[in-house]
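Posting this for the archive.
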Amino acid sequence: MFSNLNVEKSKVENKAIFQISLTIKVLQFIFNSYLIFSIPILTATYTIQSYSKFQNDLFAEFMTNLVALAFALFFFSYFKNPNKLIKIKGENLHLNIERSKEVIKKMKWEIIVENCEYMIACRPSLHERQLTLIFEKNDILLSSIRFGREKFVMSFHYDNAVLFQKQFLALKNLSN
């Protein structure tokens, strides 16, 4: 898990920024690049190998390449902004912290790091999922992260952030 959050830099860049080693950063770049470029390369290879089949059917060739491009763009959109912060409108710092604790408890997560600037929580059974909440005046900046091996950040992570956001806003609306 990451607990070394750079709060000020995260607020400026609008994404959760943790201090990680250069090795992990390089490995993440290689893995993400592989996922982005492998699908179009595999499709192009398939197209070249099956050229005799597609010679008379340009529509099939076009559709195959279009699907490959769509997958590549889909992966790129996920990898473009990992750890992006979602802004949740709150009321005040104290109330935001209390409501966040309540929602985290309701989600059956546990708080790992807690201070007046930020909070980090994870699921007890699945320590590869982490919520990062940065408290900023009246708002909360929220990021959800999934980890692979060796603290390797996976890019498919929005489901937990959306769940937290919905529950937080529901709790806020109940109290108003």
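Strands lie at 86-89, 110-114, 118-122, 129-136, 139-147, 153-154. The helical segments are 7-13, 22-49, 51-54, 58-80, 93-106, 158-175.
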